[in-house]
Design goal:
The complex is a heterodimer of chains A (about 260) and B (about 130). By secondary structure, chain A is an alpha+beta fold. Chain A has a single domain, classed as q2cbj1_9rhob like domain (Jelly Rolls, Sandwich), CATH 2.60.120.620. Chain A contains seven helices and ten strands. Chain B has one domain: Rossmann fold, CATH 3.40.50.1390. Chain B is of the alpha/beta class and about 130 residues long. In chain B, about 40% of the residues lie in helices and about 20% in strands. A five-stranded mixed beta sheet of chain B has the order 2-1-3-4-5, sandwiched between helices. Classes of the chains: A alpha+beta (about 260), B alpha/beta (about 130). The interface between A and B is medium-sized, with 16 and 18 residues.
């Protein structure tokens, strides 16, 4: 039995088939607010650290302003600051809400802080080798909302191993003794996702994915944040520590506070 | 900082000596230990949750020339099987790398140190009988 409408069915089928779904973001207001805030925070940092006032700073050109040596402290500054804004989580969720509800559920928990990746061209210090988050303690019931702040393509983007190949190579996992060897085996089958600024990506972290050093001209900027249904298994990433409830419905609230007549 | 190449952290998604320790806490301990030793800590690699998989640790073998060594959270994130454990430890020792174990505050630099690790594993196993 499946009581979903045609649009939901189309999105769900595509997601299940490929392991990901790319969509156009309708909430331009919140998307612009996030990008503008990142630029503002970056300018603040540049002024503090390098005593520079750069009015023409763009995210794509970050590599012209920041050295690799300072990249992590810069990234952490932007990450902490943007995540400290009360409006940020809600704005981020709003960008993918429609599709998150179709694919994951309408009673959700959200990762408490959205991760931020900045990859300067030819910098191999910020790469994330082939992995599946489920292998390192995440729940297999999670979904990732990945948001690019610049146009991402080829090595400036991320790769995924399509579902069918993922299932094939997962079965052979122990045949390969290291992640490097596994990566070599799956490399010809990887799909590099092309996602422009203004689009969002929802993908299951049950499939293998990762990135390599960005060998394109511009700097990559992207956020990633995990969501899952409130009552699905959590594994090592627990509620309160890693996740926060964001869309608890009245019936759940009633259930939570219900007391049988013989309870005090 | 004593070295410029730095030390890669190594944490695990599995239980450590029977207890589940959140990755954030494992990293905190490694960071603290690196600070105490005044050595440069590089972002940790996280071993997979699947039993008997050492894919991430094995991948560190090919990265080791770019590192001074590895800071493990605990000796109990090493393979339990003596043969497999010693093969790994010897590989790093032969490359003249230093292995630190943050929780136990132990260091492996040579074959003698590996024997000390063996003894701890043996006592741990024997005392559970």
């Amino acid at each position: 039995m499946n009581f979903v409408n045609n649009e939901e069915l189309r999105v769900q089928k595509k997601f299940l088939n490929k392991g990901y779904y790319i969509f156009n973001i309708k909430d331009k207001k919140n998307l612009t607010r996030i990008k503008k805030s990142i630029i503002k925070i970056s300018k603040e940092w540049l002024k503090k650290k390098y005593k520079k006032k750069n009015q023409n700073f763009t995210l794509d050109n970050t590599h012209n302003e920041i050295s690799i040596k300072d990249l992590n402290s810069y990234r952490l500054y932007v990450y902490e600051k943007i995540n400290s804004y009360k409006w940020f989580s809600k704005a981020y969720f709003s960008l993918g809400k429609r599709y998150l509800e179709m694919i994951c559920g309408n009673e959700l928990v959200m990762q408490k802080k959205c991760n931020l990746s900045i990859q300067l061209p030819n910098d191999d210090s910020s790469t994330l080798p082939l992995h599946s988050d489920v292998w390192v303690g995440d729940s297999e019931y999670e979904i990732v909302l990945w948001l690019p702040l610049v146009d991402c393509y080829r090595t400036k983007s991320m790769f995924i191993l399509p579902t069918d190949k993922n299932n094939k190579f997962s079965k052979k996992f122990f045949k390969y003794k290291s992640t490097n060897k596994l990566f070599t085996a799956v490399k010809p089958h990887l799909k590099w996702l092309k996602i422009d600024y203004g689009q969002g990506l929802l993908f299951t972290q049950n499939i293998m994915h990762g990135n390599v050093a960005n060998s394109e001209k511009g700097t990559r900027w992207s956020f990633n944040c995990r969501f899952k249904a409130i009552f699905s298994p959590y594994r090592d990433k627990s509620i309160g520590v890693f996740f926060k409830p964001i869309t608890m419905k009245p019936v759940t609230k009633l259930g939570m506070s219900y007391k049988y007549p013989n309870e005090k | 900082m004593k070295n410029s190449l730095g030390y890669r952290g190594y944490i695990t998604s599995r239980k450590v000596d029977g207890s589940f320790i959140p990755q954030t806490l494992q990293n905190l301990k490694i960071r603290d230990y690196a600070k105490k030793l005044k050595i440069e800590f590089k972002l940790s690699a996280t071993e997979y949750v699947m039993k008997n998989s050492y894919h991430v640790l094995n991948s560190l073998k090919s990265e080791i020339n770019q590192l001074e060594g590895i800071i493990f959270f605990s000796i109990f994130s090493l393979p339990e099987k003596k043969k497999n454990r010693n093969e790994l430890l010897k590989f790093f020792v032969m490359k003249k790398k230093i292995l630190y174990f943050a929780l136990e505050e132990l260091t492996v630099k040579n074959i003698r140190d590996i024997k000390e690790i063996d003894e701890i594993f043996f006592i741990k196993k024997a005392s559970k009988r």
